[in-house]
């Protein structure tokens, strides 16, 4: 039997996906969620191995109500224009198909200035918070769990266009 960190470091869960998971990820929560629903996560990594650059902007249901892919294109923003957000029912896997941006991440427990929760969109925005920014490129991806506050879309240098994949993964009970 291996430890959670050994399991994570083995990358057996990635099923051969050659991208790096950002070090900001909560490894313990990932382990818990993965093992509560391994088939869902296998579908996640199978989808990630597709030719993502050929996908059009839009939504792609993978497992009804449990796993949806969303492809978007936008220009990165000034830090003050990129809002902090969190989700309760879904985990975000965020991956830049093309372009570069910065993503903020911090523990939800440290967040302040919460707005109203929108249950239909599973989304709550937060006002000013001070969390670190991490570089996002086509070589790495991020996982944001309900215990994470995240701030996607922050420009890296000059504002620039990006194409992004967000996988909405239902939280295992």
UniProtKB/TrEMBL annotation:
According to its UniProt record, what is one Pfam family this protein matches? DUF386
Q: Note the Gene3D superfamilies from the entry.
A: YhcH/YjgK/YiaL
Cross-referenced InterPro entries: NanQ/TabA/YiaL, NanQ/TabA/YiaL_sf
Q: Which SUPFAM superfamilies match?
A: Clavaminate synthase-like
Q: List the GO terms this entry assigns under cellular component, sorted alphabetically.
A: cytosol
Record's protein name: YhcH/YjgK/YiaL family protein
Species per Swiss-Prot/TrEMBL record: Mangrovibacterium marinum
């Amino acid at each position: 039997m291996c430890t959670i960190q050994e399991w994570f470091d083995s990358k057996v869960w990635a099923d051969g996906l050659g991208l790096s998971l950002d070090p900001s990820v909560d490894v313990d929560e990932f382990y818990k969620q993965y093992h509560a629903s391994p088939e869902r996560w296998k579908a996640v990594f199978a989808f990630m191995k597709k030719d993502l650059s050929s996908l059009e902007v839009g939504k792609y249901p993978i497992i009804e109500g449990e796993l949806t892919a969303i492809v978007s294109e936008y220009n990165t923003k000034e830090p003050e224009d990129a809002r902090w957000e969190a989700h309760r029912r879904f985990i975000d896997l965020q991956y830049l198909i093309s372009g570069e941006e910065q993503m903020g991440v911090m523990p939800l427990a440290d967040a302040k200035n919460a707005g109203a929760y929108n249950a239909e969109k599973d989304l709550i925005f937060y006002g000013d918070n001070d969390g670190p920014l991490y570089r996002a490129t086509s070589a790495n991806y991020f996982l944001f769990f309900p215990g994470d506050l995240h701030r996607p879309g922050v420009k890296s240098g000059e504002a620039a266009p990006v194409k992004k994949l967000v996988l909405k993964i239902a939280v295992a009970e």
